[in-house]
Amino acid sequence: MSIVTQNATFTMRPIGRIRSPYTETSQIPKGPGAEHNAPGVLELLPELEAGLKDIEGFSHLYVLWVFDRVTDYDLVATPPVDPRPHGVFSTRSPRRPNPIGLTVVRLLRREGNKLHVSGVDMLDGTPFLDIKPYMSSVPAQELSRGWLAEAEARRRAKPV
């Protein structure tokens, strides 16, 4: 994968593949109340295994990965939780100018170059670019969910 900027090109290569129960995007939970608890395995390339030293001490990990089956992008997306369109950068749409995904997973255990995790929302065989320990210094009371909080409130207020 190459990324071109005004002055430089960056080339990235997958550091591993994700093993997931999902083989089709329609299987991945989406929409209101969607929970991502599915088990998966991050299979790091064997030659990079030393980079996992001390990762076992973290409960959660960021996984940067590639939407490798997406071929185009949209700058406006209509997410499954809201009928209103939003800019792609305020959604988790896979149809992005740079097809990069970000997921937080729970680390269950490590076996050599394999990290057993829960919370995958990627297709089986998806390449990943990086793993980072989850760290946040933002207090929960300072977080805002933007348009998503508004869409959820409208959904709750809707008469049944």
Topology at a glance:
Blueprint: E1 2-4, E2 9-11, E3 16-19, E4 39-44, E5 60-66, E6 76-77, E7 86-87, E8 100-111, E9 114-118, E10 127-133, H1 146-157
Antiparallel strand pairs: 1-2, 3-4, 3-10, 4-9, 5-8, 5-10, 6-7, 8-9
Describe, in plain words, how this protein is organized in 3D.
- This protein has 160 residues and is mainly beta.
- The protein has a single domain, classed as Elongation Factor Tu (Ef-tu), domain 3 (Beta Barrel), CATH 2.40.30.70.
- The protein is 8% helix and 32% strand.
- The strands form 3 sheets. The protein has a 6-stranded antiparallel barrel with strand order 3-4-9-8-5-10. Strands 1-2 form a two-stranded antiparallel ribbon.
- A hairpin with a 4-residue loop joins strand 1 and strand 2.
- The chain is globular.
- The termini are far apart.
Low-confidence stretches are none
CATH architecture assignment: Beta Barrel
Radius of gyration: 17 Å
CATH superfamily: YaeB-like
Could you name the CATH topology?
Elongation Factor Tu (Ef-tu), domain 3
